[in-house]
Amino acid sequence: MTRYLPIMLDCEGQPIVVIGGGVVAERKVSGLLEAGAVVRVISPTLTDTLVSLAKKGLMTWHDRSYAPGDLRGAFLVYAATDDRAVNEEVVMEARRLGIPVNVASHAEAGNFISPGVVRRGRLTVAVSTSGAGPLAAAKIKSVLEEALDAAYEPYLDFVHTMRTRIKEKEPSTEVRGRLLRKLGTLDVLNEMRDGSFIAWSPEDMDAWIADHRAE
């Protein structure tokens, strides 16, 4: 079993090449665009969705098959054609250039995989079964989507705002740590779930910090 290192990769503005234009490539492109990547797709055919994205200027489409040299300058590469031999050619070039490559037809040929992802605003949870299969990953993802309900998005925004304000207002490392631990005990998530949470103004936040500074 391959043991992968889970990481969160900043792809904002990074050039990423996807070889292939089918349904699998479409899924890859969708996630990449969501992450802010600059996507270039190389394929003689595209799904209707990818055609629409290209027409809107959200990605660049090269209407042809893969050719050696297509990967130069890429931050990441996705080999997503339905031709295993082509995918293997892409892998060889990517490895020669030192570019991380993901392979749709046989994941073990690449050196990174794309996990299932659950997003709730600032929260990102990735699911990988290390080869147990996409159906198992989909079931686990479904469980997580139900458990991590929509309230997590405003909750994490609240926590982020409060953490930022505490760090700005309190110079003492010891006191900051105490306030941040106290922040973690607030039952804001459940209040947001049941609709009883009343939004805090900046003055409310400052008052809370002052009230708990000496505790």
Offer a few descriptive terms:
215 residues, alpha/beta, Rossmann fold, 3 domains, five-stranded parallel sheet, 8 helices, 7 strands, 44% helix, elongated
What does this structure look like?
With 215 residues, this protein is an alpha/beta fold. It folds into three domains: 15-114, NAD(P)-binding Rossmann-like Domain (Rossmann fold), CATH 3.40.50.720; 115-148; 152-212. 44% of the residues lie in helices and 14% in strands. It contains eight helices and seven strands, in the order βαβαββαβββααααα. The strands form two sheets. Strands 3-2-1-4-5 form a five-stranded parallel beta sheet, with helices on both faces. A two-stranded antiparallel ribbon has the order 6-7. β2 (38-42), α2 (48-55) and β3 (60-62) form a beta-alpha-beta unit. The model has no long low-confidence stretch (mean pLDDT 94).
Based on CA inertia axes, which overall geometry fits?
A: elongated
Largest sheet: 5 strands, parallel
CATH architecture of the largest domain: 3-Layer(aba) Sandwich
Give the DSSP E fraction (strand runs of 2 or more residues).
5-15%
State the helix count: 8
Number of domains: 3
Please report the total strand number as a whole number: 7
Distance between the termini: 49 Å
Any idea of the CATH topology of the largest domain?
Answer: Rossmann fold
The level 1 CATH classification of the largest domain is Alpha Beta
Oligomer: single chain
Q: Biggest sheet, strands in spatial order?
A: 3-2-1-4-5
Q: CATH-wise, what's the superfamily of the largest domain?
A: NAD(P)-binding Rossmann-like Domain
Give the H and E element order: EHEHEEHEEEHHHHH
User: Please, what is the average pLDDT?
Assistant: 94
The helix-and-strand class reads alpha/beta
Question: Helicity range of the residues?
Answer: 40-55%
